[in-house]
Amino acid sequence: MSPELILSVRNLSASIAGQQVVEDVSLDVPATGVTALLGRNGVGKTSTIKAILGLIPRRGEILLDGVGIDREPTHRIVQRGVGYVPEDREVFAGLTVAENLKLAQRGPDAHWDVVETLFPDLVQRSAQLAGTLSGGQQQMVSLARALLNPNRLLLVDEPTKGLAPKIVGEVADALVRAAELAPILLVEQNLAVVRALARDVVVVSGGRVVHTGPAAEFLDDPDLVRRHLGVHGDAPESAAAGAVPDGAHPTEAPA
Ligand SMILES: Nc1ncnc2c1ncn2[C@@H]1O[C@H](COP(=O)(O)OP(=O)(O)OP(=O)(O)O)[C@@H](O)[C@H]1O
To answer: Span of the secretion signal (predicted)?
Structure first.
């Protein structure tokens, strides 16, 4: 495996309740930056992430930094430094922010300083029950839990789903900072966020990868976007419309 790759997946298939939900996915994630995993609803993006983590039964080859993890259980994969920010946040509603974070701590070298720097609002709210936080604040807890530990790779699933445009920008800003710490494989429907964050895209359709390449090249080709995602990349009425984060645009050259 190329030394510039942190993750290499070959011929991945996976099933849920006996039904095949990932057919034959092969993809690479570079060792730096954000790689976006795109596709229409229900094509198997979340299932691909779960299969990489061993959360659902899977077959195929999965190399993390050159080491096979496709036969390992989830806890071993997490111990190897794969952080996970699940769809729908999955915070413990009845626990405080501080308790949510402490539960996520994997070892003695937790990055409390990173969490405090990136999420000062959470420090203020450390005694608040996570279930009483807004959706955006819960997303920050979910991200902070993953960033608390040293990660070699972050798997982040639809972090801006259901959030107001201003909050989408804040979450995207946090992801820009997170990507400085570890490479990210990001499932994201908001193409403005993808444009702001991702260097590369992997597009899935029918359980297989149908396009890979630079994010800008894909997003700038309306025919490709329409064919693979069923939306118009720049049309305001489309699902691609949404908040463009205020933060840095790491994939674009400075003006
Ligand atoms: N728990 C489950 N039981 C049965 N089928 C499931 C389950 N979870 C997912 N599926 C099915 O697996 C397929 C892939 O779902 P998955 O959530 O991976 O897609 P996705 O690309 O992430 O979709 P979306 O963009 O809508 O979140 C879908 O057809 C879905 O209905």
So the answer is: none
